[in-house]
Amino acid sequence: MKKLLLLIPVLLLLGYLIWSSLDRHELDLPTDAQFRDYQTIGLDSGRGNLIGIQPFMVTADYSSEKAFYKKIDGYFAQLKQRKWLNNKSIVVLPEYLGTWLVAVNEKHSVYTSPSAAKALQTMALSNLGGYASAYLSVPDSVKAHPRYAIFKMKAEVMAKIYSNVFKKIASTYQVHIVAGSILLPNPKVENNEIIPQDGLMYNVSAVFQPNGTIAAELVKKSFPIAEEQAFLATSPIQNLPSFDTHAGKLGVLICADSWFQDGYQILKQKGVKILAVPSFCSINFGWQIPWSGYSGWPTPAKAKTDIGVLTEGQAWQKYAIAGKASTIGDIQVGMNVFLKGQLWDFGFDGRTTTTFGTKSHTDNQELSSSVTCLWL
C-alpha cells in the first residue's frame, strides 16, 4: 500500500510532463503577408521616405521564430518589389507587434484558445517550473502578478527572436526599422542584443539600423494606459532618446505618449525631424465608439468637453500626432501606425495617420493590412 501511495505522485508527475511536452512541434502553415491597401504621399526626391506598415497578424505567426520572420519578411519583400526601400528609408511597425512572441514554442492549444486569458493560463500550467520561478521574482509594486510572471518567464526567448528577426530584416533590406513594441523586464542593449533583466516590466521599442545593429537606447513608454498600469512601469519622459538616420534625426513616441505635449518638447530639444508613433487599439471598430477621455491619466481641462462627444478616432485626430502637427515646430514629418489581426479575443482598429508640416492624412483601412509611404 505504501509503495502504491508513493507511486501516485510519480505517475502524476510523469503524466504532467507528457501533457506539457505534447503538441509543441513547429507549425508549418501558409503565411498571408499580402497588403490589402497601398498608399503613397508625395514623390521620390532622393531624400528618403517614411513607411508605415499595418500588418495583419494571427496567432500562428507567433508560434516560432521561423513563422514570425516569414510573416514580417513577406511584407518587406513587397516593399522591395515596389522599389520603395533604400538606405534613407525608415519603416515603422505597430505597438505590441513583438509582445505576442510570449506565445512562441507553446502547445498548439495556445494558438487555438478562445481568449488571450485562456492562452496565458495554458502557458502557465504547461510551464509550471518556469512560471513559479518568475512569479517569485515579481516586484512588490506590480499588481497583476500572473501577467507579469508569464512575460518574465518568456522574456529571454522573446527578446532573442525579436532581435534576430529585425536585425536580419534591417540588414537584408538596408533600412532603419522602428520595430513596433514588445513587453520586457528592465531591458538593455548590450553586444548588439536586447537583454531582459530583473525588475519592472516596460513597453519598449527598439530601432534597428541598416547594418543590422540595434540602436544603443531603447524607447520606453512613459504614459501606459489604464489596462497596462497594473503590470507595466512608467518611464520618465525625459529619458526619450533620439536616433540619427540617413533621412534625418528620428524620434519615437509609443502610442498614448503621442497624446502628451511633454514628449514633443523633449524630442524638439534633441533636434528630431522625423517622428514615429507605433500604436494599438484593442476594440474592433474602436475608432467609432464614443471617446471616454485620456486612459489612465487625467484628461486635460480643455479636452473634457469632448468626452462622449467625439468618437475615439476623432479624439486621435484632435489630441494625438495629427492634432499636434501645428504645434510640434521643427518636427517636419510623422507617422502613426496600428496593429491589425485575429489574435484570440482582441479587437483591432486604428488608421495610419501621416503628418507633414501642418497637414495630415489618415487612411481609410479598418481591419485589413495596409502600407503607407510618405516621400520626404
Description:
By secondary structure, this protein is an alpha/beta fold. The protein has one domain: 4-Layer Sandwich (Nitrilase/N-carbamoyl-D-aminoacid amidohydrolase), CATH 3.60.110.10. It has 8 helices and 19 strands. The protein has helices at 2-21, 65-81, 108-111, 116-126, 128-136, 145-173, 261-269, 312-319; strands spanning 38-41, 49-54, 56-58, 89-93, 176-179, 182-185, 188-190, 193-195, 201-205, 207-208, 219-220, 242-245, 248-252, 274-279, 333-338, 340-342, 353-356, 359-362, 370-375. The strands form 5 sheets. Strands 1-19-2-4-5-10 form a 6-stranded mixed beta sheet. It has a 6-stranded mixed beta sheet with strand order 12-13-14-15-17-18, with no helix packed on it. Strand 14, helix 8 and strand 15 (333-338) form a beta-alpha-beta unit. Helix 2 (65-81) packs across helix 6 (145-173) and helix 5 (128-136) crosses helix 6 (145-173). The longest helix is centred in the middle third of the chain and has 29 residues, at 145-173. The N and C termini lie far apart (80 Å).
